Amino acid sequence: MKRRTFLKGIAGSGLTLAASKMAGIPLISTAKAASQPVLVVIFQRGGCDGLNTIVPFADPDYQLLRPTIGIAEPSAVDPESALNLDDFFGMHPSMTGMKSIFDNGDMAVLPAVHYPNASRSHFTGQVLIESADPTTPVDSSNGWLNRRLADILPGQQLQTPLQAVHFGSTLPHALIGSVPVQSFSFINSFNLGLSGAEENQLINDVLPLYQDMPANANAYQQLVHQYGQLLFNSLATVDEIDTSTYNPTNGAVYPETSYGRRLRETAQLIKADLGLEMVTIDLGGWDTHSNQGGGESSGRHAKRLAEFSDGINALYTDLGAEMDNVVILTMTEFGRTAEENGSNGTDHGHAGVWTVTGPQINSGIVGAWPGLAADDLVNGRYLQHSVDYRDILGDILNVHFGHSLADVSNLLPGHGYNALGLFAS
User: How far, rounded to the nearest angstrom, does the alpha carbon of residue 385 sit from its chain's CA centroid?
Assistant: First the structure.
């Protein structure tokens, strides 16, 4: 492999720093502070239909707007009816996993989350959500989680090998910024695709290039140098993690899907005490313009919600007492139209459902219900929002991660943070 090709691969790999036993490469501590807070962010990409996820069955306009795909009000004899939460809202019947967490008092459900002057573009909406700054052009913004890393890491280098990671093929906008962050499909799939002897030879040939920062290095040289160190640190750490022997505890059963496997590996990393502080995971398949389905388990939306819910329940169950320091945040770029369309589906909308899970969370429904009457809808079609998503992020930054109010203002630029009280005092 030519040096230029190898360096190009490093710079474009989206990797993050990890500990290395290789001589000459600066070591990153594997020590973890006591009670280290962890945030797991699950992004439902494609715009999840919130009205069939958290069902406002007591709103008199709900069934009128959805005569075909609407979910029936709770009934002990109807398995396709909503799972009652508070006699006004119910969960989709496929979401038994998350319903049990809610009943356990460890989940806040926010049924109407969004931001002013919202976009109904998937790409734009996702960037605006993950930048936490809808006032900045999408091509110049950085991510809210990376801004947090930059705020606590003045040297722009992670404190521990796996402080922040993304499970997936593409680094999400939330983790894009000045601090390099790792993105991999699965832990044990991260390698150079070489035999042990070939990899060792490559390391011996290239390692000396990254032992010391070049004198008077410009920004591009610093970047290449940083990613070089990052690659070697990552290889050594991931090589010592064996996901094949991990056994979930407390009877947890993860979905037999890529999403389930990534949640399972998240639990393993948290239990391994490697300093994981934030992890992001994507789950797509929510763009239900047609044949969305209603309460039947065979429906397109129902199947996705079952996987989504079962995975969260498995992670929550598997971690057990470890959940005391973990928060699971779910988000989506927008909800969908209040009224079903002619293809038995729903189109791009505005406000959607977010959830926040953890033993430290005040369980219940959060935020006023805007209503589904024509006069209450945006342009007569879209659910209004009653909770600005940046206030959810603000509560997490302020309470879970311990940032001051001044810090929160800097991390959520252009927004006057209003605490929601998601966390128990």
Answer: 21
